[in-house]
Amino acid sequence: MSQNYPPFVVFPDLNCAIRLPSGVEYRGKLRQHPSNDVDGEHWYEGYVRAEHKDHVTADTNLKDRFNRDGLRPEYFHPQSNAEPLRVKLNRIPAAKRTEKNADTLVGEIWNHEGLWTVVASPSASPSLHVAGTVVPSRHELDHKGSRIRQYHADPVAQDNEPTPAPAPRKTKAGGNAARPA
After folding, report:
1. How many H-runs (helices) and E-runs (strands) does the chain carry?
2. DSSP helix/strand/coil, 75
3. Least buried of 31, 73, 143, 173, by fewest C-beta within 10 Å?
4. Would 20 be classed as within a structural domain?
């Protein structure tokens, strides 16, 4: 996937591409469905497939375990209906909408690394239908054993210990002078 695009994109033909903060890339096709609640609004769903062979294998193992047992990790929220590699994007509920987030779509994707949250909105670009970003789910951030907590924009302190400030760099002259611009 080109680095020119945002981490989550849906093209006008509803093909989508996802680049997770961990570096895993996915491609797939979404379907557009009319909203049952609001005329003229749509929601999207579809399945994606990893681009790299090792990720395909890990995701296949996840799907096999899910299809065999039907279990989701205990730290997922109780109403979770997440399925491996299934992307579902819904509008923010009308009761929680503001002027700024009225067009925002929110969804989840569960892969072999964990549960990710997708936040997207319609794109102003004619070459993109929807564009957005992907971050670790808040349920992953609360889970101590999460493998993807480290990819959150505001890292969660692992042991609640303050991080020491970095020591000033020494110059060749041996002093702590600032570097020229």
Report:
1. 2, 8
2. coil
3. 173
4. yes
Domain count for the chain, please give it.
1
- Specify the pLDDT at position 174: 55
Does residue 137 sit within a domain?
Answer: yes
Query: Structural domain of residue 109, as residue ranges?
Result: 8-151
Tell whether 135 is covered by a domain. Answer: yes
Rounded Cα–Cα distance for residues 31 and 28 (Å): 10
At residue 68's C-alpha, the angle toward residues 15 and 147, to 5°, is: 65
CA-nearest of 105, 113, 110 to 76 is 110
- The verdict on residue 34 lying in a domain is yes
**Mean per-residue pLDDT, 112-124:** 93
Q: What is the reported pTM?
A: 0.79
Tell me the pLDDT tens digit for each residue of 160-174.
Answer: 444 455 555 555 555
Structure token pair of residue 55: 């990720």
Residue pLDDT, tens place only, 11-31: 999 999 999 999 999 999 999
pLDDT in tens, 129-156: 999 999 988 888 888 777 777 777 664 4
